[in-house]
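Quick bug: SD-repeat containing protein B domain-containing protein output formatted oddly.
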Amino acid sequence: MKRARRVAIGRTAGAAAGTAVLVGALAVVTPGSAPAEGVPDCGGIAANPSVEDAGSPGGPPSGYLFSPAAPVPRGTPPDRVPKLVTSTAHAVDGQVNAQIQTPDGRVSSAAQQVKAVPGGQYSLSVWAGRAQSGLGSHASATTGLRFADRAGRVLAEKPLAVTHDVASDGKLAQQELPPFTAPDDTSAVSFFASTNHNWVLWDCVHVALAAFAVKMEVRNPADGTWGSSAAIPAGDTAHFRVSVSNTGSQPLTGLLVKDPWCSGLPGAFDLAANASRGLTCDHQNLTEDDNGHVNTAKVTGTGPGGPLAEQKASATVTVTPQPAVGKIGDRAWKDLNRNGTQDDDEPGFPELPVTLKDGAGGTVATARTNADGSYLFDQRKDGTYQVCFDISKLPDGLTVTERGAGAPGLDSAVDPATGCTSPFTLGGKERERMDLDIGLAPPAPAVPPAPSGPPMPAASASSDR
Ligand SMILES: [Ca+2]
Ligand SMILES: [Ca+2]
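Here's what came back:
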């Protein structure tokens, strides 16, 4: 695990000596300790990790809240009056370390609040030490992480008992807390140090956080803006954007966004600390039944300490009714020359019953052709339709002419056997079908008897184009 190292003051000259000392520190490794890598690793999301920032020389390190033991017993010596200070005695990084002094048997503690992310995965490395003599088994010196809710109730406390006796080598020893996931109601996370015995020392705090945040938005088709909700016409596509942000100090791997209602999401991806990525996906062909739908994306991912808690985000779709602007028409005509196309001198066919059906074959509307043969179904919503003419009672031996003999709008669009068009769909850019015509052709003339006189020009003219 590679972490950015804080610049330490005055370390360069003592690097070799520091290495030798760390080897010595390993000899007294305490439970929970980890081998030092030779270079102290201070920072992460901890503020003032090297405790070099103090309000005054020797004063308390900035950013810490001190809770001194109280009341102070009468006769407490000055060097055990509750105090949070910085001291040059055992600095690991830079020039000073932090120190709490307290009356024997009375607990004093100091805490530094760090970034609180519910579901975030926290780990801690800190260099600490204590004095071993004194109260015996009643003495405690602890550092660790504390998780509290909005009301200040402690939801979880992960302590690291400080057992390294500074007197043994004059140094602090590194301890590590394995990754721990913040409880759901966490609103405050603190690094703390506490003791009931003079004293506890620490330096080089490194709090690492693996966490991510998710936001989902839907695009408003009216103005192109993204928000938590949008009104979208039925039949159109809802465009969603899922933003995943690495909100911690650790790299994340295997981030995966799942949203079965939305298509087009990519596979798993990685995010460096502080990086973010926006993904888009669509839900096509919204129906009025989708009105009020809350679309939720679930996101999983893995930090250095293992899988992180699943995060969710949602956006709401309001579906506005389909525009009822569709037009369907428009003519039945007599195809006198039986060529399948509407010639200039061919009249309309009135009073022909016509039925508009939906995609399932149900009747949507009925009409009869006008005196000029025209018909119109208008103010239709988007959807699948079919037009059927009633060809069961055609007079004068009329039959349905050939389908598709010419250009759409000039030919006949119905199956001669059924009188129905093929099903078609209104929506998007196609909301008019005015080419759904039917040609009704008279019977072909009987073959004339063998000519016994002059040719009959009228007969050839009647079959002319
Ligand atoms: Ca320091
Ligand atoms: Ca014709």
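Actually, after a second look the formatting is fine. The chain has three domains: 12-209, 212-320, 326-441. Closing.
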